[in-house]
Amino acid sequence: MKQLFFLTLFLMTAFEAAVAQQPLKTIPLKEAADLHRFFAYTPGNQTIISGHRGGTKKGFPENAIEAFENTLQYTQAFYEIDPRLTKDSIIVLMHDATLDRTTTGHGKVGDYTYAELKKLYLKDVDGKVTSYRIPTLAEAIEWARGKTILNLDKKDVPLEMTAAIIKKHQAEAFVMVTVHNAEQAKYYYQQNKNQMFSAFVKTPKALISYEKAGIPHQQMMAYIGPDIKPENQELYKLLHAKGIRCMISAASTYDRLTSPEERAAAYQAIVKDGADVLESDLPIEVSEAIKID
Questions:
Q1: CATH of the domain at 48
Q2: For residue 170, what are the contacts with CB-CB under 8 A and spacing of at least 6?
């Protein structure tokens, strides 16, 4: 029995080492126009996977560069991540306004300096403490260069600071921003005419507001919601006709199904329904379910 245990442990270690040596499945983009083309809708195009909060897996925390890198060993994906401000105005990655759920710290992110946050450790999806630390947005941007795309969600960082850090790092070719309305998109577009958007477009009326704000169709990916529902068909038809890809996020819905088989069936149904981008906390599972290498 003991021999079997050690053999199993050896095989698992050997497998993990082999995976770690595999080349990353990257999305190498050089110019903003490359990013616009990557998200352009064409009939029959391959589904794009987005790792929500950077994606999660046992042993790898959300919003951690190590988790991003791990996912790219299995599948091509881009990442929705969550910038927040420290007490001394450093932008770090943290979904919650508080530290308790995902770190060894307690209290509000904004009550700590970055130097203080650097002493904490991140927890994985099961709440287990890892050896990984809270990254800054600047670190994530430089890691992503030549590897993948980052989609910056809207938390407590002012729009002007977000626009400024993208400009400082010359990252418009691989950093996009989530906008909840046309006003936010218009601000970013005025700062950078090449900015790519993950835009909330849950109704035809919302699309009209972006068009009136002057946002080009080729610089939009449309987030249409978390569910498969009949109303989506009108949005697919409308947005696809304008060359805009549509995203369903399974993070709050189908990711929570209890079995891998149920989740796989749901991911397949999302793609069959018409979504071009599938966002999930479980990007590796999604890639296996919809057969993306």
A1: 3.20.20.190
A2: none
Please give the Cα distance from 261 to 272 (Å, whole number): 16
Distance CA 121, CA 142 (A): 21
Q: Which domain holds residue 159?
A: 30-93+135-289
CA dist list (Å): 193 to 32, 33, 73, 186 = 10, 11, 33, 10
Domain count, the chain: 1
25 is a domain residue: no
Give the C-alpha separation, 209 to 269, whole Å: 30
Confirm whether 129 is domain-assigned: no
Tokens representing residue 29 in the block: 């983009």
Residue 22: pLDDT band with limits 50, 70, 90: confident
> What's the whole-model pTM score?
0.92
Which residues does the annotation mark as catalytic? 52, 95
